[in-house]
Amino acid sequence: MLSSNELYDLTTETGGAFSxxxxxxxxxxxxxxxxxxxxxxxxxxxxxxxxQRKHIYPVYAFARIADDIADELTGESTERRLAALSGMNELxxxxxxxxxxxxxxxxxxxxxxxxxxxxxxxxxxxxxxxICFVQPDDYEDLLDYCDxxxxxxxxxILRIFGIYNKETGKLSDKICTxxxxxxxxxxxxxxxxxxxxxxxxxLLAKYGIKETDLSAGRIPTDFSGCLKELFNFTxxxxxxxxxxxxxxxSYRLRVEISATxxxxxxxxxxxRELGDKxxxxxxxxSKKEMLSILVLILxxxxxxxx
Length: 306
Known about the structure:
This protein is an all-alpha fold. It is built from 15 helices and no strands.
């Protein structure tokens, strides 16, 4: 991960120490950010056509930097982190971004593909919410958060491939929300240490779970019942959203999205297996497991999820 000073540099007009003098350098920088960060799910993998992969790099780099500012710089003041994200929003709307590699590449991509700034702005709102965290009261609150934190990513991918519309957008939202929720459940052991509990308050009450139990690392009596409900809710989103695969004209994109869905379901399966132990352990996918998922997809049909 980049240091705090390096992250802040990338929220300035010049890009600080990372300043570039050409669009080519800017895309190269974004590619490095994208390909050197661990993710449980494929990001701009070689499965995707090179033409589109190029444009995914600055989208990912933008989100990665904002996410790290919100989640990793916990030792920094709230005001400074919020100001950095506001600076990114200003650069997003600006016509001049002298040397900043992320915004040099991102603006070129936005211009070439006619991508509006709104999806990026929604992501920044979500990251600000992370800094000023408020536990969701119910599923509606949880889904509203996902509408800002995850769904814009799916929209951007569809726009990069020129296939974003009302129907594909709705199905993509289900997949992206499913991925965001899986990320919450796999990160329970990490988030409670940051005083973040993404399980809705009314669901904790339903199962007689006290937030103080989670923050203290104590396993509540009916924690497994609560988790089961969350996992079932999440799994349903994946299966409903998987119909998106029938709308994708690109075989390589179908394979990529299928691998992403299957990766999400695999992590969900690992969460089920861990059960109460999720309070202390974070499940991950190994490279071998990810490769196994890809091989199974390539042997069958890319749009076959079950």
